[in-house]
Write a structure and sequence with these properties.
It contains 12 helices and 34 strands. By secondary structure, the chain is α+β, with helices and mostly antiparallel strands. The protein folds into 3 domains: 179 residues, Distorted Sandwich (Beta-galactosidase, Chain A, domain 5), CATH 2.70.98; 359 residues, Glycosyltransferase, CATH 1.50.10; 61 residues, no CATH class. β32 and β33 form a beta hairpin.
């Protein structure tokens, strides 16, 4: 994957036209079939693996007539790139010259990615011979395959290209295919940007407007994060960080409205476009690697912000999202609106330049204005809580956590920039804390639990899931201090015990809904599956709150799960309890790669180092976990104040800064 291009196949490398197989560009499947035959049949593929997020390599052997014995004399190497390039190299080990017939069967339907992923591909199209290859056409779009060297025979009706390659003893020959998409101008190709919804997701009421698939520049943008590396006693952590950053680069795309700005798409196959909440979470979790991704994401989302006066003024648009069996769909736009000022405030602490902060401040102020209007316009019975998704509720606990963090970090940002209203935001946040600790806490003999939400009639709903981890996510203020949380100390300790208990902790991560709750389904998107993003938030929150044992256990569980997934975590996997001989089971509708899963893995690892910078004050605090759950760690290539930062954590949990920006002082 190297968005807006990607390729999907089985480990054999053959594109059969079944399922998701194919090359895609700008959300369109430009090649669904690319089957190679050589010698006396199909190559026997003995290895297929990713070399990087954007390249794959397949190695096979080919039987030829006249071979004596079991040893193949011809091997094939197939290198595939997400940009639409495929190289097939045939190498001979024979002691005699060989003439190798090669046949490649091609085809496409020019279907949209969302339709293919949902099992609704289009009919196959008829090809026409075009130059040194073939061409397929549909209204508004054309797919073209060219070959080097040119084939000696082309059968458009069957989609066949044929060669007879002469291989000298010990020699080789290469065929290169290149597939490209040609679009007619101003033709809408889909009713949503590519991959904005997955099957089962809710959608906003009313008609869905037709909008073109985003078309971005073809060149790959530079990585907007530092080249971070980890050397850990547990080498699986090294591979997980490297693989996660590679996946994130594959998902990186330019904003069509302003190509200099980049953000990370949410994931393949369902969310290959801009998903505001996921993009902001990803940018926030990658702040230890620099602020450039956060800046580009914030600028892109600021351009989408509602600017028309009214109740939605300042809100960032976003789709509705299924919230499980106990609640109506939530709004990702509300989540993104509350995340925006928090991400900007924390990016400033990590070293976002002042001019960039000032440029984005008006958009953050509009988000905070929407926040104030939201609880003022809610029903009188709401108690001043922020509703989601409608003005009359419900009132979700995680939404209050997002709003509380936005108010505190937003006030910190306004103070730093000399803007007004900071005092009013802090006052509202303090009032919210006091009421939340009573209204959202359900007492019981086991110590109590936070309510998942308050219904529209003010009734608390007690079901417990991984989303409760958001109550531990407070945010970074000046001097390396953390913002106060919605829960008091005793409630925080109780929540830590609940998160660590068997009802929520599978051994691979946290269930979206506790195993003892009604409606629990280990494959439930929001009702029992493990979502890496929420487990990462729990690890960081538990570590910051001093619950090192619980944080370390969850971190090791995710690392064990990643080992079973080849260090490429899916967005979610089944919430079945871990057994001695078991393995995590992927969710059939999970994105993989997924931005929040890859960034969540990075957050888990960097959270163990306990970095808390305050670049405007010229300090950085290092508070690693004293238990050192993964052993000794050394991070190099992190970024604080836009300069390289390196830190070493010993097996005793002692931190030592080895590289930092000039003038940056180590805080206490």
């Amino acid at each position: 994957m190297a968005l807006p291009g990607l390729a999907v196949s089985s480990p054999s490398g053959q594109l059969t036209g079944q399922g998701l197989d194919g090359y895609y560009r700008d959300g369109i499947r430009i090649l669904s079939r690319c089957e190679v035959r050589a010698g006396s049949g199909e190559p026997l593929v003995v290895q297929g693996r990713l070399l990087a997020a954007h390249r794959a390599r397949f190695v096979g052997t080919i039987r030829t007539t006249g071979e004596r014995g079991p040893d193949p004399e011809v091997r094939m190497e197939r290198l595939r790139s997400a940009d639409g390039t495929e190289q097939l190299t045939f190498r001979s080990s024979a002691t005699r010259p060989l003439r190798l017939p090669v046949e490649i069967r091609l085809g496409t339907d020019l279907a949209e990615l969302g339709a293919v992923a949902a099992g609704l591909p289009g009919p196959g199209l008829r090809a026409a011979v075009h130059g040194s290859g073939l061409r397929w056409s549909a209204p508004g779009a054309h797919a073209v395959v060219s070959a080097t060297p040119a084939p000696q025979d082309a059968m458009a009706s069957a989609g066949l290209l044929r060669w007879k390659l002469d291989l000298p003893p010990g020699g080789h020959c290469t065929i290169e295919l290149r597939v490209r998409l040609e679009l007619d101008a101003d033709v809408p190709l889909g009713d949503l940007p590519a991959g904005q919804r997955r099957p089962g997701d809710a959608q906003a009421p009313g008609p869905r407007p037709r909008t073109p698939v985003p078309r971005t520049r073809g060149d790959r943008p530079p990585r907007p994060w530092s080249p971070a590396r980890l050397e850990c006693d547990d080498h699986r952590a090294d591979a997980l960080l490297a693989g996660s950053l590679d996946d994130l680069y594959g998902l990186l795309i330019r904003d069509p409205a302003q190509p200099v700005d980049t953000y990370v798409a949410a994931g393949f196959p369902w969310r290959c476009g801009l998903a505001p909440a996921e993009a902001l979470w990803t940018a926030r979790m990658l702040l230890p690697l620099g602020t450039r991704l956060a800046a580009g994401t914030l600028r892109a989302l600021a351009r989408t912000q509602q600017a028309t006066p009214g109740s939605d003024f300042g809100r960032i648009p976003g789709a509705l999202r299924d919230a499980g069996p106990h609640a109506p769909p939530s709004c990702t736009g509300i989540e993104a609106t509350l995340l925006f000022p928090a991400v900007l405030a924390e990016a400033r602490r990590w070293g976002l330049p002042d001019q960039e902060t000032e440029r984005l401040l008006p958009a953050a102020e509009r988000c905070l204005r929407w926040l104030r209007n939201a609880f003022e316009q809610a029903d009188a019975g709401s108690g001043g809580y922020v509703p989601d998704p409608a003005p009359d509720g419900p009132y979700r606990s995680e939404t209050q956590a997002h709003a509380h963090r936005a108010a505190l970090l937003g006030a910190d940002l306004l103070d730093a920039c000399g803007a007004s209203d900071a005092a009013a935001l802090r006052e509202w946040a303090a009032d919210l804390r006091a009421r939340f600790r009573t209204d959202f806490w359900i007492a019981d003999r086991a110590g109590g639990r936070p309510a998942a939400l308050l219904a529209r009639d003010g009734r608390p709903l007690p079901h417990l899931g991984a989303s409760a981890a958001h109550l531990l996510d407070t945010g970074l203020l000046g001097g390396g201090t953390l913002a106060p949380g919605l829960l008091d100390a005793a409630q925080t300790d109780q929540l830590a015990r609940l998160l660590r208990g068997p009802a929520l902790d599978t051994g691979w991560g946290l269930r979206g809904l506790g195993a003892k709750e009604s409606g629990y389904n280990p494959f439930g998107h929001r009702s029992g599956a493990v979502r890496v993003h929420e487990t990462a938030i729990a690890v960081a929150g538990l570590a910051a709150a001093g619950h090192e044992k619980a944080a370390g256990a969850l971190a090791r569980g995710v690392l064990d799960a990643a080992d079973n997934f080849g260090h490429r975590l899916p967005e979610m996997y089944a919430g079945e309890q871990r057994t001695a001989d078991g393995a995590p089971v992927p969710h059939p509708a999970a994105c993989r790669p997924a931005a929040v899963a890859a960034a969540g893995a990075a957050q888990i690892l960097t959270a163990l180092a306990g970095l808390r910078p305050d670049v405007p004050a010229g300090t950085v605090t290092v508070r690693p976990l004293g238990s050192a759950p993964l052993g000794a760690m050394q991070f190099t290539g992190l970024s604080v104040a836009e300069q390289p930062f390196a830190v070493r954590i010993s097996r005793l949990g002692m931190g030592m800064v080895e590289a930092a920006a000039d003038g940056l002082q180590l805080g206490s």
